[in-house]
Specification:
The chain is an alpha/beta fold and 126 residues long. Helix content is 44%, strand content 18%.
Length: 126
């Protein structure tokens, strides 16, 4: 498995810890965290070794969806894989996220195994 450096974006410290612990449980140990979309963009600008993004949708300031659109419009990191992990499970929400070009989508709550499956699916497709 090629090592990935994850950017975990969620306004909830608890949820960032859950995602981080899930990543550790499936063998990924390199990650940085951001509390919102604006902080995520600054981390991407500052750290060119980040190569996978896991983001929540519902965040103050810059939402996960706005973050995805901003990333996709940036030549520097627009091709990075993005997994959205959110409580928003309606078909319309999933469709909107896919139209914004997330690579995959997980509805909370989730298990480390589900996270692994979604990450593996993304990595297999890029």
């Amino acid at each position: 498995m090629t090592q990935k450096k994850f950017l975990v974006v969620d306004d909830s410290t608890t949820m960032r810890r859950i995602v981080a612990n899930s990543l550790k449980a499936i063998g990924y140990t390199d990650f940085v965290e951001a509390g919102d979309g604006r902080e995520a963009i600054s981390k991407l600008d500052a750290d060119s070794t980040i190569n996978f993004i896991i983001t929540d949708w519902n965040m103050p300031e810059v939402s996960g969806l706005e973050l995805v659109r901003s990333i996709r419009s940036n030549d520097k990191y627009g091709k990075l894989p993005i997994l959205m992990v959110t409580t928003r499970g309606l078909k319309e929400d999933i469709l909107e996220a896919l139209q914004a070009k997330v690579n995959n989508y997980v509805v909370k709550p989730f298990t480390p195994q589900i996270l692994r499956e979604k990450i593996d699916q993304i990595l297999a497709s890029i």
